[in-house]
Automatic annotation (TrEMBL):
<dbReference type="InterPro" id="IPR010167">
    <property type="entry name" value="NH2A_AcTrfase"/>
</dbReference>
<keyword id="KW-0012">Acyltransferase</keyword>
<dbReference type="Pfam" id="PF00583">
    <property type="entry name" value="Acetyltransf_1"/>
</dbReference>
<dbReference type="InterPro" id="IPR000182">
    <property type="entry name" value="GNAT_dom"/>
</dbReference>
<keyword id="KW-0808">Transferase</keyword>
<dbReference type="GO" id="GO:0005737">
    <property type="term" value="C:cytoplasm"/>
</dbReference>
<dbReference type="GO" id="GO:0006526">
    <property type="term" value="P:L-arginine biosynthetic process"/>
</dbReference>
<dbReference type="InterPro" id="IPR016181">
    <property type="entry name" value="Acyl_CoA_acyltransferase"/>
</dbReference>
<dbReference type="GO" id="GO:0004042">
    <property type="term" value="F:L-glutamate N-acetyltransferase activity"/>
</dbReference>
<feature type="domain" description="N-acetyltransferase">
    <location>
        <begin position="4"/>
        <end position="151"/>
    </location>
</feature>
<protein>
    <submittedName>
        <fullName>Amino-acid N-acetyltransferase</fullName>
        <ecNumber>2.3.1.1</ecNumber>
    </submittedName>
</protein>
Length: 169
């Protein structure tokens, strides 16, 4: 979409990011993210900004392990939904993943068609070995718990599809 710039998020963007995600939190599509969590993870986010400075989309890349990252919290406002901003956001996050040296990207989503168009494939099996799984269980991050498909996050993930994209070298 013309007139939208994708850039790294700043701390001053956090309140607007929070506002973008709240409708999806209320619909149980995204996990609740308190402001403090967003401030702590602001460096993982990119935002889409209009020429007049309005934030109209966000997305995050969270590193899970040596070769594995997770695409999180891709949200577009109603004003730009269906205009390619989400696709641009995902492309930027994939480029960030490659820059970090990641080889695979994971997402847990209801938007399977969107992610499939970008090379993600649905998976049912555990995609890390048992030793990595055991290490990752130590994470306090709810998103990592979702990735691991731990029982206590099931109410938040029912109906979501686990998808993975392998990145080309």
């Amino acid at each position: 979409m013309h007139g939208v710039t994708i850039r790294r998020a700043k701390t001053a963007d956090v309140v607007a990011i929070h506002g973008l995600i709240q409708p999806l939190v209320r619909q149980n599509i995204l996990l609740r993210k308190d402001l403090v969590v967003l401030y702590e993870s602001v460096q993982e986010f990119r935002v889409a900004e209009t020429a007049d400075g309005e934030l109209v989309a966000c997305g995050a890349l969270h590193v899970l392990w040596l070769d594995l990252g997770e695409i999180r919290t891709i949200v577009t406002s109603d004003a730009v939904r269906g205009k390619g901003v989400g696709h641009q956001m995902l492309e930027h996050l994939v480029d960030d993943a490659r820059e970090l040296g990641l080889k695979r990207l994971f997402c847990l989503t209801f938007e399977t068609d969107f992610f499939r168009r970008h090379g993600f494939e649905a998976v049912a099996e555990q995609i890390v070995d048992d030793q990595v799984y055991a290490e990752m269980r130590r994470s306090p991050d709810e998103g990592v718990h979702e990735f691991l498909d731990l029982p206590w996050v099931k109410p938040n993930t029912l109906g979501n599809t686990r998808m993975v994209k392998r990145l080309d070298d």
